[in-house]
């Protein structure tokens, strides 16, 4: 005599089919998540590449700007040194003193000018 209800009998008869469906659904879910993960990894790699390229470009542009500024500073320093030297100042002072006589006010102003230019040259 069979004491099991008919529900269990029907399930046991179709257990292989149900197991196959469950395995197929699990495999499909795994495949779906693997595809999503692969797509996300590809997008992350692409974004990392784009970001790295942008950073490199900005770094090169900043370096170029810095180089231009340094070149301008160097040019200005050279120009200042070439324009006026200490010997030139002494020569200018002596000539002006000779032209204007030995006027003490002019001599003092020339000494102050010479000191100021000497400080600029030393920088």
Written overview of the protein:
The structure is a single chain. This protein is mainly α and 123 residues long. It has a domain of 40 residues. Helices cover 90% and strands 0% of the residues. Helix 3 runs antiparallel to helix 4. The protein is rod-shaped. The relative contact order is 0.05. Keywords: Membrane, Transmembrane, Transmembrane helix.
Shape: rod-shaped
Largest β-sheet summary: none
Helix tally equals 4
What structural class should be given to the helix and strand makeup?
A: mainly alpha
Overall average pLDDT: 76
Indicate the percent of residues in helices: over 70%
Number of strands: 0
Low-confidence stretches: none
Q: DSSP strand (E) fraction?
A: under 5%
Distance between the termini: 113 Å
Q: What is the helix/strand order?
A: HHHH
Q: From the alpha-carbon coordinates, what is the Rg to the nearest angstrom?
A: 45 Å
Map the helices and strands:
Layout: H1 6-13, H2 15-83, H3 86-100, H4 104-122
Short characterization:
With 123 residues, the chain is mainly alpha-helical. It has helices at residues 6-13, 15-83, 86-100, 104-122. Helix 3 (86-100) runs antiparallel to helix 4 (104-122).
What descriptive keywords fit this protein?
single chain; 123 residues; mainly alpha; 4 helices; 90% helix; rod-shaped
